[in-house]
Amino acid sequence: MPYKDPEIRTQYQREYKRLKRGGDCQTPSQTLVPMPFRLKTAHDVLALLAEQIQAVRDEQDAGTLEKARTIGYLAGICLRAIEAGDLAARLEALEAVLKARRVS
Fold first, then answer.
1. CA dist., res. 94 & res. 8, Å (int)
2. How would DSSP label each residue in 27-71?
3. What phi-psi label fits residue 23: left (phi over 0), alpha (psi between -120 and 50 degrees) or beta?
């Protein structure tokens, strides 16, 4: 983070390095995501998105328009995850066929 005042920059760097040494530094590039929430496949993404869409639908305080926008956005992400999953399955099938040809 650029600071014009060298003293403020020094204070920031000192605090940042202290947090980094302590393991509490969570800048965007170093966010610590708990292991159970790591997504590995398109199926994991779809399961998480289904859960979040249901949470949006169940939210009492959100307005209809806000819910519609959020669900529409999440549905677009779901479509991309489905396409990625289909593509991965097709690629695996193609790799299996090519391996079978090499063996023969």
1. 57
2. -GGG----GGG---SHHHHHHHHHHHHHHHHH-SSS-HHHHHHHH
3. left
Six-digit token pair at 76?
């677009």
Per the rule left: phi > 0, alpha: psi between -120 and 50, beta: everything else, 28 is alpha
Query: Does the predicted TM-score (pTM) go above 0.85?
Result: no
- In the block, tokens 């966010």 appear at 31
Cα(22)–Cα(63) distance, rounded to whole angstroms?
A: 42
Closest-CA residue to 33 (of 48, 12, 43): 48
How far is the C-alpha of 19 from the C-alpha of 16, rounded, in Å? 5
Q: How far is CA 83 from CA 36, 43, 47, 74, 90, in A?
A: 24, 11, 15, 14, 10
For the stretch 7-58, pLDDT in tens is 888 888 888 787 777 666 555 455 554 556 667 777 888 888 898 889 889 9
